[in-house]
Amino acid sequence: MRKQRFVIGLLFLSLMVTGCGNRGIPAIKQELMDKKMSVLMLTSASLSDPAEQTVSQTLLQWRDSNQIAFDWVKDLQTMDDSVAAKLKSKPYDYIYVIGNELLPAANPLISQNLTTGKWTLMQNQLDPSASGAGGAVAKAAVFQIDPAKIDTLKNQWVSGVLATNTSVEWVTRADRPIPSAWAPSEEADHIVLLDNNQQWFQQLSLQTKQHASSWIIFNAATDAAHIQKAKTLGVSVMDLSDALSADLDWTAIMNNRLNGMLRHTWQSGATTYSDQELKELKLK
After folding, report:
1. What's the chain look like in SS3?
2. Which is the CATH superfamily of the domain at 30-144+247-283?
3. Which domain of life is it from (predicted)?
4. Strand partners, 274
5. Of 268, 263, 222, 264, the residue nearest 120 (C-alpha)
6. What does the domain layout of the chain look like in residue ranges?
7. In Å, how far are 10, 14, 18, 19 from 23, measured between CA atoms?
8. Residues 6 or more apart from 35 whose CB is under 8 A from it?
9. Most exposed of 52, 79, 145, 147 (fewest Cβ within 10 Å)?
10. What confidence tens digit (pLDDT) does each residue in 51-76 have?
């Protein structure tokens, strides 16, 4: 009798443990798994090592603390076929693109509607060519360094040069006209256009001598060889398209993008990095 009671007791205890186990550790339902947020991160080869480390640490934090799944394709030179294949392979809630050289190439992919995910494009440095993201701003959130702040710094520097009453020669392109405050219309003979102008250097050399200019200022992005050639004229040379440097706080940038995902505040359009995200903008 005691043996039978012992066996029955063991069976009862086993059933209780099994039942408690099912109630205490419920199986994860598939619909909950399907709701897990997913991110595709695309970063350019030009991303600095510290910025890349921050992105790496951030993605791991998003996964561990916020249950955000991610795929990361790094060191991209352009948005090639492998990126399109990645977008087709699985659904993503958010697609992040970091790197100036990737932004123009992102526009065709966005237009193809390969994913229903929300695109966010981010500059990683100042853009001398000002190529930007083109038409992508209609369907993507585009973060860039504030052009107004860039113009303010340039204006301050140029104003300082002009305040010394020195003569200046300007080198630019037709799509980058010299502001009238810098070179009034009566000083048009101080401007050299690079567009379809094989004789630009001869013209610049002649004008520099005629006006006894002390400065040559490039207002449009150009080849480094052009800058070096201008320096052979023996006067001061400034390349305004590459005169500034920006220090971005990638920890703040990524934290703000996380807040946007968690609060569902993403919206398309061009915007500028906040003062928190842009730590410093200065002349080199």
Report:
1. CHHHHHHHHHHHHHHHHHHHHHHHCCCCCHHHHHCCCEEEEEEECCCCHHHHHHHHHHHHHHHHHHCCEEEEEEEECCCCHHHHHHHHHCCCCEEEEECHHHHHHHHHHHHCCCCCCEEEEECCCCCCCCCCCHHHHHCEEEEECCHHHHHHHHHHHHHHHHCCCCCEEEEECCCCCCCCCCCCHHHHHHEEECCCCCCHHHHHHHHHHHHCCCEEEECCCCCHHHHHHHHCCCCEEEEHHHCEEEEECHHHHHHHHHHHHHHCCCCCEEEECCCCCEEEEEEC
2. Response regulator (3.40.50.2300)
3. Bacteria
4. none
5. 268
6. 30-144+247-283, 148-242
7. 20, 14, 9, 6
8. none
9. 147
10. 999 999 999 999 999 999 999 999 99
Tokens representing residue 249 in the block: 């706080």
Q: Please, are residues 120 and 97 in contact by the beta-carbon 8 Å criterion?
A: yes
Same fold, 30-144+247-283 and 148-242: yes
How do residues 189-247 score in pLDDT, each as one tens digit?
Answer: 999 999 999 999 999 999 999 999 999 999 999 999 999 999 999 999 999 999 999 99
Q: Which CATH number fits domain 148-242: 2.60.40, 3.30.2320, 3.10.20, 3.40.50?
A: 3.40.50
pLDDT-based confidence at residue 33 (cuts at 50, 70, 90): very low
Beta-strand relationship, 278-283 and 244-248:
antiparallel
Q: pTM, whole model, 2 decimals?
A: 0.81
